[in-house]
Amino acid sequence: MLCTQYRRNPYREIGALQNELQDQVRTIQRALGGLISGYTLPSSSEFPAVNLWANEDHAVVTTELAGVGADGIELSVVGKTLTLKAVRQPEELQEGERYHRRERWQGHYTRTIELPFTIDGEKVDARFAKGVLYITLPRAEADKPKKIAIKSS
Question: Could you tell me if 57 and 130 lie in one domain?
């Protein structure tokens, strides 16, 4: 008798389950004629996507927030953690209009980003231009490397 051993990949199983659930939601959307259109299953830990880079003095985070106004964004920093909260409002349809396809996500979301060092929260600078949020996060002085002088005897 020949036995074959397979390795389980729980991440693949979770992804397959999420895809199956999304397919069921699409089937229900079609059956209801778009009454619940637009429901998606974004991963809260990965949405919105961010870029993060740093040097010895500061870190920079950028993220695309199309469809969100600057007044719909909330940022907070505690230690090495940046939290981004935002709200994307649904588009207003005119009377007699209905969606045939609605893939853009809407609603409230939160993204927590672990930074490479402790941040000076008083000096954070955030700009929002053309749907992109730019956040410059200065490193806290207490967290910067200190040179230690070596005395010779």
Answer: yes
pLDDT at 117: 93
Report which residue type is found at 58.
Answer: H
pLDDT over 70, % of the chain:
79
C-alpha to C-alpha distances, 88 to 35, 57, 76, 143, nearest whole angstrom: 19, 33, 18, 35
Parallel, antiparallel, or unpaired: how do β-strands 50-54 and 125-129 relate?
unpaired
Edge-to-edge strand list for the sheet holding 132-138: 50-54, 58-64, 132-138, 125-129
**What whole-number distance in Å separates Cα of residue 29 and Cα of residue 40?**
11
Q: Please state the domain count of the chain.
A: 2
pTM: 0.63
